[in-house]
Amino acid sequence: MDIFLQQLLNALSLGGTYALLALGLAVVFSIIGLINFAHGELMTAAGYVMAFALAAALPFPLAIALAVAAPVLLATAMERVAFRPVRGASGTTLLLTSFAVSAILRVLFQNFISARPVPVPMPSALSGVINLGPLHLGIIQSISIATTALMLIGLTLFLNRTVAGRAMRAASEDFAIVRLMGLRANGVVATAFAISGLLAGVAGLLWVAQRGSVDPLMGFLPVLKAFIAAIIGGLGSLTGAVAGGFLLGFIEVTLQAWLPEAWLPYRDAVAIMLVIAVLLFRPQGLLARKTVLKL
Amino acid sequence: MTLRKTLSLTALTLGLAAPALAEDLTIGLATAQTGGLAPYDQPSLAGFEMRVDEINAAGGIAGKFPIKLIAKDTRSDAAQTALVAQELVDAGVQIMITPCDADPSIAAGMITQGAGIPAFSFCATTPTLPLAVGDFMFGNYPADNVQAAMLAGHAIEAGYKTAYILTSPDSAYTLKLPQYFGQAFAAKGGTVLGEGTFAMGQQDFSAEVTKIAAMDPKPDVIMTAAYEPDFPAFVRQLRGAGVTTQVLGSDGIDSPTTFAMGDLVEGVVFSTAGFATEGSALAAFNAKYKEKTGEEPNTVYIANGYDLGTVIEVAVTKADSLDPAAIRDAIASLENVEGVTGAISYAGTMGMPLRSVSLVRIVGGNRELVTQGVPAPEEVPAP
Fold first, then answer.
1. What is the pLDDT of residue A295?
2. Structural domain boundaries enclosing B72
């Protein structure tokens, strides 16, 4: 029983990070139909800023603030430079553009920063344990769960209570009508990218806190997981992305915990098979929008 | 045979085309300067180039064979490595250097083996690499089974009776090294209680760590060849689950990230290719490197690449010829070449060098030498 509860906490923490990442992808996809594969490089950027800020002996809160601000700026810059010129082009064009942006950023990191991982010395206070009876919860794990919850609440409030948020929700339903209403398309799209940058920054810090270093290729795997999570949840649906993230986290931890030893090397294959099973029954994903997808 | 003829013809044509005064030794570098292997190949190349510059400044190998390098990026891709290797063979190289991983090295080795050109992997550690390719393939780093034997010897000496090994089937290194450790540990009377697995790069060990925490009886020591980002994530989560069991690692964690982890890695022991004791050749090399580049060498791969330059220098001097087959025979007969990381021998091996392994303990964010040397051949598990 204890082990079950412990694994449940583990799943919650991993699923939360996936949820944040999937949400970042979904926010942009729901509006301009782009799966931004350069999302992972936004995480990497957050990690590098954190590493350099800590190396420059800046206070920890300031380092975090800078590390979260950097991907927001980078995401908006990305939108302005790379994605605005191809806005409205076919899904394939958008997808390839995002691959190109991702590859360029990775090579820039590799050649101008370092191919070797750069250490991010997190304060040792973060490596402690909270004991809840028989359960052990790492401080980073707890922060991860709490941050995910805060971000989700904050984003829900933003989307429901502010004009910009409502505009974004409306745009995800029907962008043309939103423009007819007199809202500036560029503003809405830029906001979407800024939010996805914020989500990537927070997820990036949580990711880096676990691994203690940042390297140029770090972003690839998490963005792949986020992509899978967004697909399970139903591309374009924000709640779906969150649900998909948590589901993927639960599937992975459950399989790792209870698959027979001999099967463990195939854990990812089994996980992907379960995802395919979900899609067989719900081809549009768990919580898909009713409209036809643009991809 | 025809291929060899074509090659010598190509070399001849090149020799005629270039206004070369002396006879150049052309070394082809099919190594990864971008992608996932760049963290290992880039520093290896930096060290290697430093040695080559020194040799050329002294008038070339044995004063008559200046070294010419042709470097091409393989982008850490095995297919691209084979392509690049073919281009370099066509360009007439006499020695090939391949990336720090067995898979691309085998891909390139298939081509150099066919062309009869000796090839070295910068720092691949898989002991079966030369066996998979042939007699023209050599390693340049202490092999996995040698590192494992040293670690097992240490574990027994430290009084550990039981061990748990954590492997990943995603690479030969992360899978086989802990298994070699298990074999060597069992051969010396230890017991392996279990083997856990992880997927590389996913950095979520929570489920695996929960299993370890629930083990009864607990192992005395946990051995893994996980490296960045997996190793830091594993140790963080292991300690986060309240498990204080001693952890043994391998050379993959010899990186600044590990040393930046503070209390989490206190007491961790790992194997690596060299330790700069005061007054040692490695310490002198590190000082020289710092003087030249202005930076502390942050990894032993730099010194390891530097030593490869010395190995080639000694081999070509011994062969006294630029004929690739003569160079191969000379490499295979090398004994106790004085490198900055210690003595290097190829004589009597199957292509992986016999060279010193250092065991290092992390104490207060610094290195402390546990032991260094070459394990007795009978203690090394068969590849």
1. 41
2. 2-141+279-352
For residue B43, count other CB atoms closer than 10 A to its CB.
Answer: 24
Kindly identify which residue of chain B lies nearest to residue A116, measuring between CA atoms: B39
Number of domains in chain B: 2
What CATH number corresponds to the domain at position B283?
3.40.50.2300
CB B69 within 8 A of CB B49: yes
Q: Are residues B231 and B207 in the same domain?
A: yes
Q: How close A68 comes to chain B (CA, Å)?
A: 21
Residue B228 has its nearest CB partner, among A10, A213, A265, at A213
| Residue of chain A whose alpha carbon sits nearest to that of B199 | A265
Could you say which of B42, B204, B259 has the minimum Cβ distance to residue A14?
B204
DSSP 8-state symbol, B377: G
Query: Measured between CB atoms, does B154 come within 8 Å of chain A?
Result: no
- Inform me whether the C-beta atom of residue B215 falls under 8 Å from chain A C-beta atoms: no
Weakest-pLDDT range from B5-19, B87-101, B311-325: B5-19
The answer as to whether A292 is a domain residue is no
Alpha-carbon torsion angle A205, A211, A214, A219, nearest 10: -70
Dist CA B253 CA B271 (whole Å)? 9
Residues of A in contact with B171 (CB under 8 A): none
Mean pLDDT, chain B, integer: 90
| pLDDT per residue as tens digits for the range B326-362 | 999 999 999 999 999 999 999 988 899 989 999 999 9
The confidence score (pLDDT) of residue B162 equals: 97
User: How far apart are the C-alpha atoms of B240 and A247, rounded to whole Å?
Assistant: 24
CB contact under 8 A, B257 and A110: no
Residue B137 and residue B286 share a domain: yes
Distance from CA of B194 to the nearest CA of A (A): 10
Same domain, B167 and B266: yes
Q: What is the distance, to the nearest Å, from the Cα of residue A282 to the centroid of all Cα atoms in its chain?
A: 23
Q: Number of folded domains in chain A?
A: 1
pLDDT in tens, B141-151: 999 999 999 99
Rounded average pLDDT over B152-178: 94
Q: Looking at the structure, do residues B99 and B157 belong to the same domain, yes or no?
A: no
Mean pLDDT value of segment A8-22: 91
- pLDDT band at residue B122 using 50, 70 and 90 as cut-offs: very high
A75: CATH: 1.10.3470
The residues in B 42-71 lying below 8 A from A, measured between CB atoms, are 42-43
Q: Are residues B42 and B99 in the same domain?
A: yes
Residue B15 pLDDT greater than 80, yes or no:
no
Q: Is residue A291, in this structure, part of any structural domain at all?
A: no
Q: Do B75 and B126 lie in a common domain?
A: yes
Closest C-alpha to A217, from B9, B296, B360, B39: B39
